[in-house]
Amino acid sequence: MNAMLTVLRRELSAYFYTPLAYVFIVIFLFLNGIFTFYLGQFFSRGQADLLPFFQFHPYLYLVLIPPVAMRLWAEERKTGTLELLMTLPITTGQAVVGKFLAAWLFTAVALALTFPIWITVSYLGDPDHGAIVAGYLGSLLMAGAYLAIGACISVLTKSQVIAFVLSVVVSFLFIVSGLPIVLDFFGAWAPAWLTQAVASLSFLRHFEAIQTGVIELPDIVYFASMIGVWLYANTVLVEAKKAAG
C-alpha cells in the first residue's frame, strides 16, 4: 500500500509541476461552461437541474481525458525511466494502480471545480441535490473508465501523441456503440444477442440514467468493470515490456 501511495504522490505532483495541469483545468472549466450555458440552453430551459451540464460529459471526456492519461506510461518509456521504476520494491500492479489513481484524483479535482455551476442552479431554483450528487458520481466513474483506457494504451508507445490518438479512437468506439446508426447496422445482419452486447458496451447507455439521478447497480458495475479490465490489461502489457527488456 505504501509503495502504491508513493507512486500516486509522485504522479500527482508531476501533473502540477508543469503548466499542463493548470491549462487543462482552465480548458475543462471553460468548455463545461460553454456546453452548459450556451449549447445546453441552461437558462432558456427553465428547469432547475444540471442535465445540460452532465449530458455533454461523454464527449468532453473523449477529447480531454486522453491528454491526462497519455503521459502515464508513454513518458516513462520515452525517458527510459520505466526500467528504473520497475527496479523499485514495488509490484507492477501497485505501479499501475498508483498511476491510475493519481490521474483519477487529478480529474476529480477538475470536476469538483465546476461547483459554481451547482451553486448557480441552486440560487436560481430548487434542484434535486441527490440527483446532482449521483450525476457527479457517475461522471467521475465514467472519467475513470476513459482514464483506464488511456493508461493502458499509453503502454503501447513512446509517443504521447500516438497514445492520445489511439485513446480517442478506442474511447470513441465505446461511445458510438450505443448509437442507433450502429445498432441498426448490427441489427440488419447480426443476431439479437450480439446487437445487445454491442449496445451494452456504450458509455452513453450506462451514463444516461445516472446523469438524471438514477443510480442502478448494473451501470456502476459496468464502469467499475471497465476500469478493472483495462487496468488488468495495463498490468499485463507492462509485464510484457519488462520481460522483453
Automatic annotation (TrEMBL):
Organism superkingdom: Bacteria
Primary residence: membrane
UniProt entry keywords in alphabetical sequence: Cell membrane, Membrane, Transmembrane, Transmembrane helix
GO molecular function: ABC-type transporter activity
InterPro entries given in the database record: ABC-2_transporter_component
Keyword Transmembrane helix appears in the UniProt entry: yes
Membrane topology field: Multi-pass membrane protein
TM spans (from-to): 12-38, 58-74, 95-119, 131-149, 161-183, 220-238
Recorded GO CC terms: plasma membrane
Subcellular location: Cell membrane
PANTHER family documented for this protein: MEMBRANE COMPONENT OF ABC TRANSPORTER YHHJ-RELATED (PTHR30294), MULTIDRUG ABC TRANSPORTER PERMEASE YBHS-RELATED (PTHR30294:SF29)
Entry protein name: ABC transporter permease
Organism expressing this protein natively: Immundisolibacter cernigliae
